[in-house]
Amino acid sequence: MSTNFEILGREEVDDLEAILSITNTDVDEIVHTVRAHSDALFTWDYERSRPALVKLYEKAKSSQWNASTDLDWSIEVDQATVVLNNIAQNQMIPNFDLTGTPFESWGEDEWIQLGIESQNWTLSQFMHGEQGALICTAQIVETVPWIDAKYYAATQVMDEARHVEVFARYLDEKLSGHYPINAHLRMLLDDIIADSRWDMTYLGMQIMVEGLALAAFGFMHQMTTEPLLKKMLRYVMADEARHVAFGVLSLQEFYQELSGPEIRERQEFAFEAAVRMRDRFLQQEVWERMGVDVREALKLVVQDDGRKVFQAMLFSKIVPNCKKLGLLDAADGWLRQRFTELGVIGFEDWVDTGSEYAALDEVAKDREARTA
Ligand SMILES: [Fe+2]
Ligand SMILES: [Fe+2]
């Protein structure tokens, strides 16, 4: 049984000092190397024996889209206007007392700049996360022993290349600056890629990272007033719903063969991933760039009710999917206890993502609308 310290490197999950002590010190690096320890597997069994994966693969082939032609890149984006429109539409006016805080002297200009930096940061992290997905999925093509899963994963590699492409292009053409990868996100991606067990790649990427991405993209899609980003997110989400389904369908089968201690290791990995992703959403780099004291700013930020709701909501796909995989209640409910402490167990009975992708086929809907 591992302790919090062994899993996370700290005893208290909410230890702010420990979280902030993890920073990206290689902000100028161009190439980042991770040693993968996994075997590449051939299979000589070409039988299409997994109908749910066959169906998903067929759907993936017909749902490909082209980032160059299916999105209208001529739409002009004025970031300050987008920030103001988003605030107006979503009534996001902070209403607590800022006296004696780093924000006391802030006027409208600083708040708008914070909104702009937040956009730059958020889209940058999405882009880096998408590259993580690209690498993980290419790895799954090699390591998974089932032919149907190799076929499906190959379509996901193409999807992820397209996702990196759209976020990179949006950042370059429409926003005003990149951020390097957040250290918590990088730690998590490194751990997922380095693990030698093929099912851990799925758990880390398809269930945890992509489950969170699906919720975060959905939130941003709902909040944004910018039409290009809105359509881009709608298309990316349709792909992500398939990816999470791929994880659920594959692990559901595989976990049936695992022993109690092996399942416990999966629970610990899911918990570690959950905490790393939660840590990254403190967006510590944004506060640095805004020139405010990060600790003072975060003391205030963590109290904000809107933020708490947002942070919990990020787990709205992960928790039901973990439940469907049997990870919540195995090993005396170890993960249920951890998710309860993180304040996210309330999502356990929300809809899981094993079949949600069918309703989210945005590309097919748009094609039908065009031919009608
Ligand atoms: Fe993606
Ligand atoms: Fe994905």
Describe the structure.
The longest helix is centred in the middle third of the chain and has 36 residues, at 108-143. The protein has a domain at 180-371. It is built from 16 helices and no strands. The protein has helices spanning 4-8, 16-20, 51-62, 79-90, 108-143, 147-174, 183-194, 198-223, 227-255, 260-280, 284-289, 294-301, 305-313, 318-324, 330-341, 362-371. With 372 residues, the chain is mainly α. The structure holds fe (ii) ion (FE2) (2 copies).
Summarize the structure in short.
This protein is mainly α. Helix content is 64%, strand content 0%. The protein starts with a helix and ends with a helix.
Instruction: Tell the overall outline.
Output: globular
The distinct bound ligands, ions and cofactors come out as: fe (ii) ion
Distance between the termini: 59 Å
Instruction: Give the low-pLDDT segments.
Output: none
- The SS-based structural class is mainly alpha
Main beta sheet strand tally, sense and closure: none
Overall pLDDT metric: 93
| DSSP E strands, number | 0
Strand share of the residues? under 5%
Radius of gyration: 21 Å
- Quaternary organisation of the protein chains: single chain
Instruction: Please report the number of helical segments.
Output: 16
Helix proportion = 55-70%
Helix/strand order, N-terminal first? HHHHHHHHHHHHHHHH
